[in-house]
């Protein structure tokens, strides 16, 4: 069984390898776009969440010096993931039976 870190690294390597094959990169991008479109249609809460954080990220990057962008992006991505986990936890808690 692969660890989560191994899976992430292999996906990064796969994506990096696409740089050498523009046609495969285009197919991959089109498939990803179709998947994202379906996901957004099926989950309006995700669409709202993404729009909100995209606007926040764009504003934060404008107000941050270019040299700090990588750090800012890492920080914001971690915040976004954590916030999405919190949203799901709060929703799941509502579904749990209460004594």
SS element count, helices:
4
N-to-C span: 38 Å
How many structural domains can be distinguished in the coordinates? 2
The assigned structural class equals: mainly alpha
Strand content: under 5%
Q: What's the topology here?
A:
Layout: H1 4-17, H2 22-42, H3 44-62, H4 69-95
Helix pairs in contact: 2-3, 3-4
Would you write up a description of this structure?
0% of the residues are buried. The model has no long low-confidence stretch (mean pLDDT 93). The protein is extended and about 55 Å long. The chain has two domains: 1-42; 44-99. It starts with a helix and ends with a helix. Helix 2 (22-42) packs across helix 3 (44-62) and helix 3 (44-62) runs antiparallel to helix 4 (69-95). By secondary structure, it is an all-alpha fold. It has helices at 4-17, 22-42, 44-62, 69-95.
Nutshell version of this structure?
With 99 residues, the protein is mostly helical.
Structural key phrases:
single chain; 99 residues; mainly alpha; 2 domains; 0% strand; extended
């Amino acid at each position: 069984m692969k660890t989560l870190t191994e899976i992430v690294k292999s996906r990064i390597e796969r994506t990096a390898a696409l740089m050498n094959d523009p046609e495969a990169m285009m197919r991959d991008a089109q498939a990803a776009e179709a998947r994202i479109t379906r996901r957004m249609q099926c989950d309006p809460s995700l669409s709202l969440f993404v729009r909100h954080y995209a606007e926040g990220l764009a504003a934060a990057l404008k107000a941050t010096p270019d040299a700090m962008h990588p750090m800012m992006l890492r920080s914001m991505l971690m915040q976004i993931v954590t916030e999405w986990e919190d949203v799901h936890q709060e929703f799941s808690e509502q579904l749990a039976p209460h004594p």
